[in-house]
Amino acid sequence: MPYRPGRYYHAFPGGIVASGSKVGFTNYKFMKATTNEKFSPTLKSKIKDTKVPDDVNSIYEIVINGLDADAISRSIKAGMAAAVRVPGVKKISAGNYGGTLGPHKFYLKDLI
């Protein structure tokens, strides 16, 4: 999807977070969002209840912000279409964070 100014933007460099994030904090009260240690491949050997499978060495969180639900839906759909063509991708999932990040819910099964 070509970039169209005013339709969407990236809150993180390139829109990619190097590991899963979570709303809130474990150790740093001043942080609004922090690394979700249960989904961090570099911490999987140190975290007792890790959610990272043994054969997974990287997890990327793609952060999508948009001005309307249609722009976000199209971005998610384009991202999934690109990701399934990448060798080694094992899973595509989404989080809603309890609705704390906005009023909309996007179900991946509805976008494929």
List the helices and strands and how they pair.
Layout: E1 8-9, E2 16-17, E3 21-23, E4 33-35, E5 61-62, E6 65-66, H1 69-83, H2 108-111
Antiparallel strand pairs: 1-6, 2-5, 3-4
Protein architecture, described:
By secondary structure, the chain is an alpha+beta fold. It contains 2 helices and 6 strands, in the order ββββββαα. The protein has a two-stranded antiparallel sheet. A two-stranded antiparallel ribbon has the order 2-5. The model has no long low-confidence stretch (mean pLDDT 79).
Task: Give me the side-by-side strand order of the main sheet.
Answer: 1-6
Give the CA-CA distance, first to last residue. 16 Å
List the uncertain runs: none
The shape, in one word, is: flat
**Estimated share of beta-strand residues:** 5-15%
Structural class: alpha+beta
Describe the structure in brief.
This protein has two helices and six strands, in the order E-E-E-E-E-E-H-H.
Main traits of this protein?
17% helix; 112 residues; 6 strands; 2 helices; alpha+beta
